Amino acid sequence: MRPAEAQTVGNPEGNGEVLSRRLAAWAIGTVMLIQGLLVAHAWGRWRVVGALCGLFAVRAVLNTSLLSRVNRGERLRKWEQWTLLLGNLALSAAESQLVHWSLLAWINMLLQAVMLNGGAPSREGLTVRRVGLGLHLTVSAGLGLREGVEPGTVGLFCLAACAFYGLGETRCLILIDALEASRESHRRLRRMQGQLVAHEKLSSLGLLAAGVAHEINNPMAFVTSNVRLLSRDLAAQRELPEELREYVDDVLPATLDGIRRVNAIVADLKRFARNDPEAPVEFDLNAEVSSALRLSQGERRGRCRMELELGALRPIVGQPRQIGQVVLNLVMNAVQAVQAREGVVKVSTREEPGEAVVEVRDNGVGMTKEVVGQLFQPFFTTKPVGEGTGLGLAVAYGIVTGHGGRIEVESEEGRGTCFTVRLPLARGESQLGT
Q: Which helix (H) or strand (E) holds 336?
């Protein structure tokens, strides 16, 4: 393999360029060979030889100027396509007349039929090429019959020209389909590679977030302890100025409430981002739903209205961190699907016979049936490149089915989507697929 070709392995665009260069080289070589044979056939008749050489020079200028642009990936305008076809038709007819429609003239006609599909493979100009073939055969057959060539010979070469053109066109269309399939596969591989890189970055960010949460946890413990101590000591004082009494009654309790919220978010973040295996335990599903909503506050703030409806649930057995991840993924998808200011995301839980149910409903853009059918495939995403890895719902599906549950999707384009997660209420540790 030559170095220039080695660089194109795995690159459909590069493979297409190599193919175009090979076709162009084959076409040029064949044309030069037939022109040489025509000159050799007319050798000794110097006026004919000179005329053939002149026609060859005109053909070289015409084809080189236009076909070189095709091989560079440029598109010819309609009149340029017709100029190329009719110019070669006129030149071939003139050459055939000069050699009195000898066998070489008919071989040249066959070559021109094949050459109609030369150059870079393309579906463009297919009608022009077919019309050009019809004109080429009509003119050649008419001139040949006028020169006294037997009708059987004319018909035979016309049929052969049609067969050669048909084979060339079929080969051309097959190559086009193969190149298009290769380009699509290449695009998919590049997309998957980008998504894998993004997933790896997200994993690294998760570890970083867990480390940051751990570092925040220690100073927050000091802040919590000191504020509580200050509030207790001030409350124990019998006589306080009015300004300090306001701190005892309003400011410090509000501060402690804010600190509790920060501590809850830090704890949720640590629990969500940790990578160590989690043993199945009995946990409160409502608490995990509330934790997921706290983690999504930054994303949904000012974007939509959140409605929460928690029903009475018995504890379930499983991996709470993973179930929290499922709920968070569904909530984040719902928030991103709604329109700002008008968006409503409703999260509800309820108990049905034998199972606990979590429902995440939005009034967003919705999805088509085709999209719903591919939702849980790894790397499938409807988000722009760089905004989604296509792994969130695939991971959620694996977690839920690993707990013996299932995810149901109802969606209508333009009217919203509802994800329903169903988890078994009673499940032993030995049954949990981890």
A: helix 320-337
Instruction: Count other Cβ atoms within 10 Å, centred on residue 292.
Output: 24
Q: What are 430's two structure tokens? A: 């030995």
Task: Compute the distance between CA of residue 418 and CA of residue 422 in angstroms, rounded to an integer.
Answer: 13
Closest CA to 206 of 19, 391, 433: 391
**Count of positions (residues) in the chain:** 434
Q: Which amino acid makes up residue 157? A: F
**288 touches 324 (CB < 8 A):** yes
C-beta atoms surrounding 277 within 10 Å = 7
Q: Are 381 and 296 in contact (CB under 8 A)?
A: no
Whether the predicted model's global pTM rises above the 0.85 cut? no
Nearest to 405 by CA among 422, 430, 380: 422
Rounded distance between C-alpha atoms, residue 183 and residue 361, angstroms: 38
Query: What tens digit of pLDDT does each residue of 373-382 get?
Result: 777 776 666 6
Q: What's the pLDDT score for residue 69?
A: 65
d(CA 192, CA 379): 7
Buried/exposed 48-78: b ≥16 CB within 10 Å, e otherwise: bbebbeebbeebeeebeebbeebeeeeebee
**Beta carbons within 8 Å of 179's beta carbon, 6+ residues apart:** 12, 15, 16, 19, 121
